[in-house]
Specification:
175 residues, alpha+beta, Aspartate Aminotransferase, domain 1, six-stranded antiparallel beta sheet, 19% strand, globular
Length: 175
């Protein structure tokens, strides 16, 4: 048996799309809730092993970044975060450009860090104003870096002193 219709192929396609949309809208809420309750995928890593974390404010995205740091870098990230949080009560945290940033409300960001293949790079945005000046030079006049490699000891007292000094200076961007 052959059924003929006066619909054109374009009309038939539009009707099929409309039918699928209606079926999706009528889907039970339980199915939607079940699909959204799935555990989110682990963040991917960008070149050099840097975690891909969406831009967001607060401790939660910073902790997600640290949890996604590969290998020995995760411990370094956790230690840096703990030292910064202890040195600057009420520090503002965010993830920007796939990197944790730390700042003071109204003063801007004073520090950030980023994973590279062989090290974690800590950036002091007003680093040339710190005493002693952190060792890593930058093309930007005021910025200084501290590169932490796998077996490098971290001088917690010196790092904490830099963090306290940096938090008192005008920062970069909106804090």
């Amino acid at each position: 048996m052959t059924i003929t219709t006066s619909r054109t192929p374009a009309k038939a396609a539009r009707k099929a799309v409309a039918g699928r949309a209606a079926a999706k809208a009528a889907a039970p809420r339980e199915a939607v809730a079940e699909s959204s309750a799935r555990k989110p995928a682990k963040p991917g890593l960008l070149a050099g092993g840097n975690p891909r974390i969406a831009k967001a404010d607060g401790d939660v995205p910073v902790q997600a970044y640290i949890a996604a740091m590969p290998g020995w870098k995760r411990e370094v990230g956790g230690r840096l975060d703990a030292l910064i949080t202890r040195a600057v009560p009420g520090v503002r945290k965010a993830v920007r450009w796939n990197s944790p940033f730390y700042g003071v409300e109204g003063r801007g960001w004073f520090l950030g860090f980023h994973c590279f293949t062989g090290y974690v790079k800590v950036t002091f945005f007003q680093g040339t104003s710190l005493r002693p000046i952190p060792p890593g030079e930058s093309k930007q006049k005021d910025v200084r870096y501290l590169d932490i490699h796998e077996h490098d000891p971290l001088d917690a007292a010196q790092f904490t002193a830099w963090v306290k000094q940096a938090s008192q200076l005008p920062g970069w961007g909106k804090g």
